Amino acid sequence: MKTSIDFEASYALLNVELASGEQIKAEPGALVAQQGVEMKTGMGGGGLFGGLKRMIGGESFFVNTFTAGAEGGWVSLAPTSPGDIVPFDVEGSENLFVQSGSFLACTPNVQIDAQFQGFRGFFSGESLFFLRAYTEGDRGTIYVDSYGGIKQVGVSPGQELVVDTGHLVAFTDDVEYSIGKVGGLRSLVVGGEGLVMKFRGNGHVWVQSRNMASFAEKIIPFLPKDSK
Length: 228
Known about the structure:
Number of helices: 4
CATH architecture: 4-Layer Sandwich
CATH superfamily: Mitochondrial biogenesis AIM24
Oligomer: single chain
Strand order of the largest sheet: 5-6-3-10-13-8
Largest sheet: 6 strands, antiparallel
């Protein structure tokens, strides 16, 4: 399997070249174009229970699987919002946690389910669940999308990384987070900044350059009003 990404950080498009019999799984609605492949829709890995766990995590119950024919083929995939696409490799006991709605595609050996984040989810402004990507053996790859560009930030022991809740994309399982605020009560109420996630540990966090919720607030005044 060979992959490339066009139009990075703005309107990214994932291109996957598949040899005969090779497969890639993708979120329904991600297909842009294809040639020489067959698409089947199913529950993906984990059967019924796996599909339910993906749905709890904010993704579709079903997954589309693209399989190349005898002469190989290719498929192009894209997310619904303008932004970036980044590949992540996972292997063995490693876990990658991804914000709800950011799964685009993965290799067949990657499993996706939901990880409950506890009552922190009520206060974070995010979903109560993160997506968890993992494999049961060999290395696999998951492709994650964002709203805006994606930046990788390291977390070192003894340091704290602060991320606005609306800008989180993903993090490795060797960091932990808590929910807090920046500054005092005045900053929370009138400073334009809400609650944040405070990461500690020894790993990596990925953030996106735009916030979908903030964008939605900006355009609400321009939406047509109900005349009734």
